[in-house]
Amino acid sequence: MVDGGRVSSKGIFTSEEKEKLKGMYESRLSRLGPSHALDCLTQLASSVIGVPTSLVTLLGPDVQWIKSRYNFGLDVTPLESSFCRRTVQRKDLTIIEDALDDDEFKCNDLVNSAPYVRFYAGAPLFDSEGAAIGGVCVIDYEPRKLSDKEAEMLRAFSVIASNLLESSNNVGFVDSVTFLPNQQRLMRDLDALHARQDEDHVLPKTVIVLEVVSTSGYHELAKSYGVEAVEEVSKNIADLLRVCLSERHLLYAVSLSRFSVLVPQSERGAVIDIVAALNFRIGAGGNTALPVNLQVCAGYYDFDPLAIAPRDTFRRALSALYEALAYREPVMAYQVNFDNAQQRKVKLINSLPEALEDRQLYLMVQPKINMRSGEVVGLEALLRWRHPEFGELSPMEFVPLVAQTYMVNDLTHWVVREALGIISRFHEKGCYLTISVNVTTTNLFDDSFFNCVESMLGEFGVDPKYLEIECLETEELLEDYRIASVLQALRDIGVRIALDDFGSGYSNLNYLRRIPVDVVKIDRSIIKDMEVDAGSRAIVFRLVQILKHFDYGIVAEGIENQATADQLLQFGCVVGQGYYFYRPMIWEKALESFAQCLPSS
């Protein structure tokens, strides 16, 4: 909840969870993953002091985490079994020459059963605030003494380990919002696993990537409630994950809305169950700082740490997450075909410049029909790509990809130029029809777009009234004054402006009145069901009446049968487009196919 400008998470956690969180925050260094530098230090300690085992440990409220180990088989022990607990309590070097002679440890499980510890010496680790948080210790399995020189070396090792841990925590490896290890730390931990050769550390692992999804998106939440409130939501999710996951599950913050978990592969199912349970806790917004609907989606990748490069490991888990988001699935495992699809997209984008040069791209046209007279009254230019590797491509496969790059302007300029060339050829045959081309909002934000269109009209000697610019109905289009000014400039020189897919998106008639539009195209999504759905018929009828009232030209898209055409005519919509009349065709065939259907004028 938001109170007085501050975000509160009161009531999110049970009392037990609050206690668990307190312990985790007190020893948050323990949540960081394996460290090659610490491994080198423990190996060096054993060699210098002459003992078989060395450890770097961190203490939590109930357990001892073993951050680094040399010749030791455990990652975590109960706190009551920890020798380093005495070191932390004393905040000084602790030596136990024979555990069987020590009243506290002679009944310890680590002494009376494997690994049968007899000798222990440990120097405390301190955090930046001077609190003892663990120890660097050396262990032997028979009684022995520690010389003054060896004690001095052990203290030096503890200082080095303290600095290494504090550096890992503070320099580039911790998320500033959640205080979790960040993506850089995850990659470093994966690198460390990949580099290790001992069998204990190369058991199969799983990387799980989680995305917290809101209905409107984190960006819109930040616009509405402020960044602080959204950051508090991220903290809430991070804390819920902290208290639900075990010490063996390494949790990372990848971004405000994204987390990752590195787990033994055998425990992947348990973590997926935790994610499913988490959705129940946050689904109605009751357990986070904002009353919004949230959902967690997950993608995961099972891998062998020695066999797979760390960057590939994370990328494949991300690929699985993207597929889960695309298909609205709660969880998806990585599949090889996910990579194939992404590699295909990369190839398409990278081969576009060559396609523009080598004439792999071409335009087809689809006629617009006066449904009362049967005459062809206009054409829409439709882009196609004859790719040398992938064959014939629909624009739906590559245009959305190009729209995310700077190349969208080059592509649109090419389309406009080709369309003007077709208009010129039609004029040579005595066919004077308007041809429409689709542009993106990115094109309309381009300062050079208007000048390029005007220049090409002059180059081809085409009257601007024969070119129609179609732009997709989006909130950005309808609200941004810069786009409206570009459209108005085009309209002022005689270019017609059409709004495409009206009825499928923002559909705000008030905003529509603010932009210069000549023609509104009603989207096929509501046209296609008119024959069988009374609701669709009612929507189309009202749209047509309103658009006619404001003197817009109207085109109905996606007409597939005569019944729909007849119904549209009854409503007062005369111009239609769809497979029922003509499929897209090359311009030469278009001239042959409907020469007899051209207006007599």
TrEMBL record:
Q: In this entry, which stretches build a coiled coil?
A: none
Q: Name one GO molecular function term.
A: cyclic-guanylate-specific phosphodiesterase activity
Q: Which domain of life is it from?
A: Bacteria
Annotated InterPro entries: Cyclic-di-GMP_PDE-like, EAL_dom, EAL_sf, GAF, GAF-like_dom_sf, GGDEF_dom, Nucleotide_cyclase, Rev_trsase/Diguanyl_cyclase
SUPFAM superfamilies listed in its UniProt record = EAL domain-like, GAF domain-like, Nucleotide cyclase
The UniProt record lists the EAL domain at: 345-598
Q: What is this protein called?
A: Diguanylate cyclase/phosphodiesterase with GAF sensor
- Native organism is Chromohalobacter israelensis (strain ATCC BAA-138 / DSM 3043 / CIP 106854 / NCIMB 13768 / 1H11) (Chromohalobacter salexigens)
